[in-house]
């Protein structure tokens, strides 16, 4: 599990960062927990999973800057990932290490702004639970997240351990097909009154070929409805998505349509268009296993005089090649290939005496006097196998005698 923690200063930034990290870790924590408990696979999922399929199709892999990332795994199981990003003439980079041992995983990340983030995740420390603890330097902020999975419900609680602690709670009930959930955030202040920082509710319907959801967020100020449909469930090459959102305080609407198409097993094309005329498109190709190159662009169809934006992302994950040793023929094998030749059969006999096929003819069990194979003579006694066979000559007298 790879955690990307963006460090910010300030009370509001800390609360937003903790909430964002909790949502990022929810999917990976639930996936690792589901692998160890069959009941989690039958659950409704986390509240952050409501509308995730449509959101990923509309936002995932769209990038308008330059990014390079390299990931490799050592022989001890440590995954090291380094990335560099250039945006607006400013370059940033980070290096992270991830190690998983059984049900425990540890992630550490350093970036060019001298920030350090560490995350420890314990899965199934108690049945059907996942616990995540994170610590950030140099602002000395930390958070604790606890997730509980049941066949008909999920619970998540996150606490930001700072001078003004923030508590986020979310719950979901239902089944993998139908789920209803809600979340709320509470901030406790010492010098002023405490307050609710956020509350939201949502409903989702998931089927193998489609997913629909409705979310009421931003303290009831935003309504978001999305629908994602797969046209070929068997191959999963074509999908379409639609999202409508409305902000009640400003009466502004946003409408986005998009889709994806898998040209083949290695190339994917995606595009999306909103009601403001902004068109985004990307092309992603897997040139080697688990290594991708992504080219994306964005331009305004209502303002073609503006310069289009482009983005390029290269993700490399080298695969370790197994060393295959090729056996070399020994000197004895070479000698046998050039000298052990049957005069009668006329084929080269290669191999040691104990591995060569018998040259005697087959006889049924009722034959009272079958021919017997001759013993191989030993030329030199020593530590190396030097037993040499007699020339392989086929028997000419099946009645009981063998011609030598």
UniProtKB/TrEMBL annotation:
Residue ranges, annotated region (Disordered): 1-46
Keyword Ion transport listed: yes
UniProt KW Nucleotide-binding keyword: no
Keywords assigned: Ion transport, Membrane, Porin, Transmembrane, Transmembrane beta strand, Transport
GO CC annotation terms, alphabetical: mitochondrial outer membrane; pore complex
Compositional bias of kind Low complexity: 26-39
Superkingdom, taxonomy of origin: Eukaryota
Main location: membrane
Locations listed in the record: Membrane
InterPro entries: Porin_dom_sf, Porin_Euk, Porin_Euk/Tom40
Biased segments, Basic residues type: 16-25
A single MF term (Gene Ontology): porin activity
Protein's job: Forms a channel through the cell membrane that allows diffusion of small hydrophilic molecules. The channel adopts an open conformation at low or zero membrane potential and a closed conformation at potentials above 30-40 mV. The open state has a weak anion selectivity whereas the closed state is cation-selective.
Family: Belongs to the eukaryotic mitochondrial porin (TC 1.B.8.1) family.
Protein name (Swiss-Prot/TrEMBL): Voltage-dependent anion-selective channel protein
Lineage: Eukaryota, Viridiplantae, Streptophyta, Embryophyta, Tracheophyta
């Amino acid at each position: 599990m790879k955690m990307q923690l963006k460090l910010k200063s300030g009370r509001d930034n800390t609360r937003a960062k903790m909430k964002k990290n909790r949502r990022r870790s929810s999917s990976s924590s639930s996936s690792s927990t589901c692998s160890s408990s069959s009941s989690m696979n039958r659950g409704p999922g986390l509240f952050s999973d409501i509308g995730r399929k449509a959101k990923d199709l509309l936002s995932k892999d769209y990038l308008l800057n330059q990014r390079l990332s390299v990931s490799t795994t050592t022989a001890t199981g440590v995954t090291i990932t380094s990335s560099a990003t250039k945006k607006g003439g400013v370059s940033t980079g980070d290096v992270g290490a991830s190690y998983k041992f059984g049900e425990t995983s540890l992630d550490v990340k350093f970036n060019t702004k001298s920030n350090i983030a560490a995350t420890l995740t314990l899965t199934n420390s108690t049945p059907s639970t996942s616990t995540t603890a994170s610590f950030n330097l140099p602002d000395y902020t930390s958070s604790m997240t606890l997730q509980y999975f049941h066949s008909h419900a999920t619970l998540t609680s996150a606490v930001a351990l700072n001078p003004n602690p923030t508590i986020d709670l979310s719950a979901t009930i239902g089944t993998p097909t139908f789920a209803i959930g809600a979340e709320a955030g509470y901030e406790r202040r010492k010098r002023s009154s405490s307050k609710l920082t956020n509350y939201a509710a949502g409903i989702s319907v998931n089927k193998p070929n489609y997913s629909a959801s409705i979310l009421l967020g931003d303290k009831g100020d935003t309504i978001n409805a999305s629908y994602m449909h797969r046209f070929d469930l068997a191959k999963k090459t074509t999908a379409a998505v639609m999202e409508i959102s409305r902000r009640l305080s400003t009466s502004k609407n946003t409408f986005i349509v998009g889709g994806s198409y898998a040209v083949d097993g290695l190339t994917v094309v995606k595009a999306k268009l909103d009601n403001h005329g902004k068109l985004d498109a990307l092309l992603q190709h897997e040139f080697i296993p688990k290594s991708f190159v992504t080219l994306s662009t964005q331009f305004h169809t209502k303002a073609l005089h503006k310069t289009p934006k482009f983005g390029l992302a290269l993700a490399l994950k080298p695969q370790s090649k197994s060393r295959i040793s090729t056996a070399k023929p020994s000197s004895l094998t070479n000698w046998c290939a050039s000298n052990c030749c049957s005069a009668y059969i006329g084929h080269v006999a290669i191999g040691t005496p104990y591995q060569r096929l018998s040259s005697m003819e087959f006889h049924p069990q009722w034959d009272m006097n079958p021919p017997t194979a001759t013993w191989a003579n030993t030329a030199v006694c020593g530590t190396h196998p030097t037993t040499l066979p007699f020339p392989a000559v086929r028997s000419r007298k099946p009645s009981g005698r063998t011609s030598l």
